[in-house]
Amino acid sequence: MSDFTSNFWSIYVAGVTLAGILACLLLLIFTARKKVVSTTDNTTGHVWDGDLTEMNNPLPRWWMWLFVITIVFALGYLAAYPGLGAFTGKLSWTQKGEYEAEVAKTNEQWQPVYARFASMSIEQIAEDKSAMAIGDRLFMNNCAQCHGSDARGSKGFPNLSDGDWLHGGSPEQISKTIHDGRIGVMAPVAAAVGTADDVRNLAHYVLSLSGSPNDSLKANLGKEKFAVCAACHGMDGKGNQALGAPNLTDDVWLHGYGEEAIVNMVTKGKMNEMPAQTGKLTDDQIKVLTAYVWGLSNKTVAAR
């Protein structure tokens, strides 16, 4: 661990960089002074393919000065910009700073466009076609990687178009999810449930809650074991949006369907994270994106 907290690697990188530049300079000096013995006809004596003779002409001066200029440029660059280990350069330039400046400039240019939506409610924005076109681009650039271009999600990534919400589907809750992110944790509870047979019986009971195919005998045996799950999912299995606990009665399976998937979840648990978009998106962009996502599951309103 000390290798990552000491200055060793910074000094090492700076030393290797400067040594490389110095080596190039010394090579130029030594080769410029070295006298190569040649034959009387100014050749090296090397011949290829019978008639291709290597001449012993010196390196052109302009070419040599190009190497010198390159070395001078390299030293000037390293003085101005980061390149010598932890040295930040006299200009204090960073990729992060350049990125943030470009983002700030772009946001400033787009501010007049978003200003039109400032006084509008989420429902009103969802009815605005130009706003939804912007929301679609925001979704494609920031959300589609996980939730899919059609917003229907995939295994482990929620479907945003079906009205089934872990943390609530109101505009306020969607905005909070986008702004702050979410962390969902399903703790492994197999030890609290009991034996491996108890876990499988519980899995069948969970399947029965949504009317999914199940073994009724095993489901009856697993019903009492559901008390372990009820703390989060409720005694009726309808979930708890305050905790992000899924509704187990609606036949929507985020992490896989069937006995084995449920057994695996109970045994190993699961943790999912929705990254916060604050800092990446402006408040105005989050508002438009919220309206777009809200409209996906409220198509009747959004289509007016």
Automatic annotation (TrEMBL):
Residue sites binding heme c 2 per the record: 186, 229, 232-233
A molecular function (GO) term: electron transfer activity
GO biological process entries: oxidative phosphorylation; proton transmembrane transport
Compartment list: Cell inner membrane
Family matches, as Pfam families: Cytochrome_CBB3 (PF13442), FixP_N (PF14715)
Cofactor note: Binds 2 heme C groups per subunit.
Pathway: Energy metabolism; oxidative phosphorylation
Cofactor (UniProt): heme c
Matches recorded under PROSITE patterns: CYTC (PS51007)
Residues annotated to bind heme c 1: 143, 146-147, 274
Keywords, alphabetical: Cell inner membrane, Cell membrane, Electron transport, Heme, Hydrogen ion transport, Ion transport, Iron, Membrane, Metal-binding, Oxidoreductase, Repeat, Respiratory chain, Transmembrane, Transmembrane helix, Transport
Ranges for domain Cytochrome c: 130-210, 217-297
Residue intervals passing through the bilayer: 12-32, 62-81
UniProt record similarity statement: Belongs to the CcoP / FixP family.
Quaternary structure (record): Component of the cbb3-type cytochrome c oxidase.
Protein name in the entry: Cbb3-type cytochrome c oxidase subunit
Organism: Diaphorobacter aerolatus
Lineage of origin: Bacteria, Pseudomonadati, Pseudomonadota, Betaproteobacteria, Burkholderiales
